[in-house]
Amino acid sequence: MKCKEISRREFLNKAAGVIGLPYVVSSSALGANGPVPSSRTTMGFIGVGGMGTNNMRAFLNQPGVQVVAVCDVVKASNEYGHWYKKGWQGPWFGREPARKIVDDHYARKNRSGEYKDCTAYRDFREVLRRDDIDAVCITTPDQWHAIPAIMAAEAGKHIYCEKPLSLTVTEGRAMVEAVRRYGVVFQTGTQRRSSQQYRFICELVRNGRIGRLKKVVTTVGPNNKEAPPSDWQPMPVPEWLDYDMWLGPAPWAPYHKSRCLYTFRFGLDYSGGQTTNLGAHEIDIAQWANGTDDTGPVEFEDLGGEFPADGLFSTVTKVDFRARYANGVELTCRTQTDDLLRFEGTDGWIQLLKGRLTCKPESVTTSVIAPDEIHLYKSNDHHGNFIDCVKEHREPAAPVEVGHRSVTICHLGNIAMTLKCKLRWDPQNECIIDNEQANRMLARTMRSPWHL
Ligand SMILES: NC(=O)c1ccc[n+]([C@@H]2O[C@H](COP(=O)([O-])OP(=O)(O)OC[C@H]3O[C@@H](n4cnc5c(N)ncnc54)[C@H](O)[C@@H]3O)[C@@H](O)[C@H]2O)c1
Known about the structure:
Oligomer: single chain
Mean pLDDT: 91
Strand order of the largest sheet: 13-12-11-7-10-9-8-14-15
Radius of gyration: 22 Å
Number of domains: 2
Helix content: 25-40%
CATH class of the largest domain: Alpha Beta
Largest sheet: 9 strands, mixed
CATH architecture of the largest domain: 2-Layer Sandwich
Distance between the termini: 27 Å
Bound molecules: nicotinamide-adenine-dinucleotide
Strand content: 15-25%
């Protein structure tokens, strides 16, 4: 598709001409560090598959947000594996369905009942080139988080980027540096940081309700899709997909539909499997409760992680590793169907099993955090918190360093399970001590022309 690019002046004229739409001026026009001159935040969406569409709907409903662009390498498809059942007709995702959602949303609010001003792009660089866009939401597969995020920061755009923050530790650090250098607001899509329940649990731990923290047990669900077997055959690339741009910095590989939409999370070239996919949420809460948001454990050990012998999927099938922090706290992560997060201290424990909170002593459950105790960052709406922080130019609930440090633990767990060994980690210099083979796994070569 030939993408429509419009100049800032054209955009402003168009926007001002629509009934009921205030004149839009982007903050980036004044530099990323400048005040936001308008009460509106203009947004573009990069990746509008399953979760990207959810994010877009959430932002469409935020007061003061105007969605002006959507971008996806898929034009329109209902082959999103997670949602796809035999004979089932939808929903359809991709840039054209996303544009329709946006236009229909604003049309319902217009007296004329019409709106056609959201532009759909195939190439995210065209979104980043628009100087009328304040912020972008990146919901692409994991091999495509770092490059668009760094380019967005360079373009002065504020960024909401999905977890897991990165595909490698090196990518994550580069993202942190770009966000700092260009002074943009960055929210990681770890929405538990905006959950009252998780905040309460972390405040209980931080305020010593179970004594001194000794151990955190985290779990991730098993793989929820079956791999095409070892004799899988390449498929023709569908006409609705720009496959080369879907692969992006990942190595070239023949097309199979199970490689791409949704199920990319089971291919090592695009993801760290459930360790990073679900671990990015779970281990992030361990970090929050332990007060280690800007650092990490010093030791990692494989406890029997398993990887597939053949077939199209290559990520871990059984997660099992242990890490140890400098303060002595032990963190374990394992595959388990029933979602369990458990904190053990010298005087009791707190656990969340399948969403149900129980504690020992029981009184901890109803404990009140007094005004003079530790209170953690309060947000009850992850998307709304991002927009507030863009307007006020302040730190959001899940800033880039936090997202980077949490997923670093997942990456190191994967490295320990792959090499079936024990690793010593230097969280300050972000390197593995005395193991060159493991250190090389902190980064990956990107397929030309893409690079960090
Ligand atoms: N926070 C959460 O709870 C949560 C939940 C689900 C997914 N996610 C994250 O969201 C991301 C996407 O996952 P998903 O389940 O939505 O996958 P998906 O396959 O449904 O969607 C990804 C979309 O990105 C598109 N895409 C790929 N390369 C692109 C590019 N270069 N430019 C523009 N678009 C591109 C794909 O075509 C696809 O439509 C992942 O990182 C995942 O971890 C987060």
